[in-house]
Amino acid sequence: MKKRLIFAIFTVICCLTLCLCACSLHTHKFSEMWTSDDTYHWHAAICKHDAEISGKSKHAYGEWETVTAPTEDSYGQKKRACVECGYLDTERIDKILHEHIFSEDWSVNESYHWHSAECVHAEEIADKDAHNFVDGVCGDCGYIQELIYAFNEETDSYYVSGVGKGAGEEITIPSFYLDKPVSGIANGAFRDSAFITYVNLPTSIKEIGDNAFEGLVYLENIKLPDSLKRIGAYAFYHCRALVSAVIPNSVERIGEGIFRACSELKELTIPFVGRSVNAGVASESSVLGYLFGKNMYAGGVAVEQNYSASGSVVYYIPEKLSKVTLTGGKIFYGAFSRCFSLKEVVIGNGVTEIGNMAFVDCISLAKVAIGSGVTRIGNFAFNFCSNLMSVTVGANVREIEPSAFDNCYKLVEIYNFSALEIVKGSDDNGKIAVNALDVYVSENAKSKIRNIDGGYTFYTSDDRSYIIGYVGTGDKLELNDKLGGVKYEVYKYAFYKNLTVKDVDIGGFVTAIGDRAFFGAENIETVNIDDAVENIGSWAFAYCVSLKKVTLPKNVVEIGDGAFSSCRELKSVAVPEGVAVIGDSAFWNCRALAEITLPKSLTSVEKDAFGECASLLKVYYAGDADAWADVDFRDGNENIISATVYFTSEESPTLEGISAL
């Protein structure tokens, strides 16, 4: 056993010796090519011992060479090589440092002057500094000041306080001055700068002071920014070329008379009526006239506006103001009362209530659109808006006081988007539909009101046509076949209190004259009515106090109640054959009426038909004495009964306007 162990050990030793001898005899083979990294190079073994290396050392670089030259706008590139292994090292070359070239002339704005770069880097500037003004001229750059500024410590901002020597016709106010916001226009800042035609206000402006733009007589319009909070008293006083103005909803307080003597103002948009958006009760400053002041001026009309049942104030409102759009707030008692020139009112969705008497006596008002914010329309709100033709009732109107639309004689068209049941002919809901010809509930309904050349207004409903108004300037009214080409009626109150017309010619296309159609048309002197007309309504020509001559149609069968009442200049009338009845007060108070021709067909003269006709001395009657005795004369006709009666066989009429029978 011992021998075996010794033999085994000997065998192992021999094997190890042989192996060591074999290893000591191997020589590594290395590549002739260099292997490298960023720092070293070496020869790698190419025998089976590939982990072996030889000749490792750091790179030894030669000189740098430029690959791409740098410019002012782009980087360059350079390279160098290891002199032993050829390894390439590269680096970026910085852009060429640019030296800006600056203009010798100054660049300027309202706040600063500087030199601008004339090279490709035009955004670069040098020598920026604030102006050094002496008598409005910068001593450094020569800039002539356009606007003068004052610093407001309370608001940490600047106000425009005046106009400099460099100001032109058009002014643009910057948002910032000397790196502070421009937040206001000081009192009287632009006063009497008559050469200015346009002012552009930035959105940084919060306040416009008293008399700020006074006397800018060539300023036609101005856009006020939505940042504006307050407008001072008489801010636009005597801006007589101003035709429209929009006060933004952001405004919370307005001074008295801001548009005083703005005689050309036609359209106005305001966020509320009066002094303050937070006004709790009506006062003399909660009516439209507050915006125009109490002092008379050319182009202004004196308007007495009631702000309560017992309180009123006289303001002067531009005669040409025809449209007002109200965007918010409440419309207090009498806010637009007696605004005689106003033709259209748009009541926006921000308005919540229309107070009592709000638009009373707005006799030119033709169209009103009431927004969805209004819930109540006060009593007599539109009373005596005698030319109001179209009204839109907003979706949330829940209450219309009993007389809200009383005496709106021409209100023929109503758009009802509320839950109220408005029925034409009914006196419910403030009498809004008493005179209506159509009530619409669809938003797609189209108006039937048509304006015809010459200033005539027509309406067609249920295949019947009506003339409902006249806004022309001519003094002769010709109602003929040229107006629409179809037969039509003169709608009741159509020419109510018209003060333009002097002569009326009613042609054969007219079939009827409605009640009070020409009531109070004080300047009408002559009326000629074609024989086709069959009906003359009650009080149709009453109080036409200048009427001297009228020709009545042969086909008329009745002279309605009060038809010619108080026509004080009418001297003679011929009532045609076929008329059986002369209505109550038909010729009452016709003080100058001296002669009248009456038909044989006459059976009844109603109460006071010729009352107060003290000048009536001659009656020409187509019948005989027996027929005259059968005519029923009611009370109040003593003047005609006591007049001298001439029967057909005795004498013919002699005065102008009387036709022989």
Give a description of the structure:
The protein is elongated. Residues 19-23 and 653-661 have low confidence and may be disordered. The relative contact order is 0.03. The strands form twelve sheets. Strands 20, 22, 25, 26, 27, 28, 29, 30, 31 and 32 form a ten-stranded parallel β-sheet that branches. 6% of the residues lie in helices and 31% in strands. It is built from four helices and 50 strands. With 661 residues, the protein is mainly beta.
Give keywords.
661 residues; mainly beta; ten-stranded parallel beta sheet; elongated; disordered C terminus
Based on secondary structure, the structural category is: mainly beta
Ends: how far apart? 182 Å
pLDDT under 50 segments (min length 5)? 19-23, 653-661
Overall helicity: under 10%
Number of helices: 4
Radius of gyration: 48 Å
What is the count of β-strands? 50
Note the main sheet.
10 strands, parallel
Kindly estimate the percentage of residues that lie in beta strands according to DSSP: 25-35%
- Tell me the overall shape: elongated
Let me know the average pLDDT: 91
Task: Give the secondary structure arrangement, pairings included.
Blueprint: H1 2-23, E1 35-36, E2 40-44, E3 53-58, E4 65-68, E5 76-81, E6 88-93, E7 107-108, E8 112-116, E9 125-130, E10 133-134, E11 137-138, E12 147-152, E13 157-163, E14 170-172, E15 176-177, E16 180-185, E17 198-200, E18 207-208, E19 230-231, E20 244-246, E21 253-254, E22 267-270, E23 300-306, E24 312-318, E25 323-331, E26 344-354, E27 367-370, E28 376-377, E29 390-393, E30 399-400, E31 413-416, H2 428-431, E32 438-440, E33 449-452, E34 456-461, E35 464-470, E36 476-479, E37 488-490, E38 503-506, E39 510-513, E40 526-529, E41 535-536, E42 549-551, E43 558-559, E44 572-574, E45 581-582, E46 595-598, E47 604-605, E48 618-621, H3 625-630, E49 632-633, H4 638-642, E50 644-647
Parallel strand pairs: 13-16, 14-17, 16-18, 18-19, 19-21, 20-22, 22-25, 25-26, 26-27, 26-28, 27-29, 28-30, 29-31, 31-32, 35-37, 36-38, 37-39, 38-40, 39-41, 40-42, 43-45, 44-46, 45-47, 46-48, 47-49, 48-50
Antiparallel strand pairs: 1-2, 2-3, 4-5, 5-6, 7-8, 8-9, 10-11, 12-13, 15-16, 23-24, 33-34, 34-35
